[in-house]
Specification:
Elements lengths: L1 H17 L3 H8 L3 H18 L5 H21 L7 H22 L14 H27 L14 H18 L6 H17 L4 H29 L13
Helix pairs in contact: 1-3, 1-5, 1-6, 3-4, 4-5, 6-7, 6-9, 7-9, 8-9
Amino acid sequence: MIETFTALICAHVLADFALQSNAMVAGKARRDMPVFATHLAILIALSALALLQFSAAFLAALILVGLSHFLIDIAKTFAPKNRALMAFITDQGAHLIATAAIAAAFPGLFANALWAGQSWLPGTLALISGGIVTIRAGGFAVGLLMARFDDKAPPEGLPEGGRLIGQLERGVIFLLVLAGQPGAIGFLIAAKSILRFEAVSKDGANPKSEYVIIGTLASFGWALGGAYATLALMTHLAPLGILPSAN
């Protein structure tokens, strides 16, 4: 079951956070059915590729993947605009539960897939999923959290600079946790604090200091959660031989 779940969750993560443009997100918010159809086609194609085989269970699972994803995404469009972060978290939680339920209903799908003999594949899919959730999805979550404080944001620097910094710091944290060196994250916090000090200390701008602190802690917290969730998933899969031993 866990291999099937990993394959399906990787397809979901790629469809939602790697292959979905801002224009598609906006179109789904307007309940534009052609946009929904395009998004679902990408998801189903990725799910089919991950579990490629010819069986009735395979077709049934793909139908459930598409149907559940569509219903959850449609439900999200009715969420209040001022509850965007809660809608995002609830939406992704519902997708996670639906994916787990489908994997539980068809636990042997990956074992019968064309790629079943590749023992390294589930672990690789878990790494890909964890990296995207930590780095890419984390950016959306932190952005939604900080949207209410936009008027207190620090002065603009490089275009998209803050977004890129957040992605890089979450990527570094993800790698440090997987490498068994979480203690080094403290040095990352110290370095960012020093580099940000001048930007947030001018003119006694305390609200801007708080803005940076909240954003940084949220970003670091998301990255730690994503990294340790990835490690937890990988403990149930065949080892890749590239991560330090849990012992």
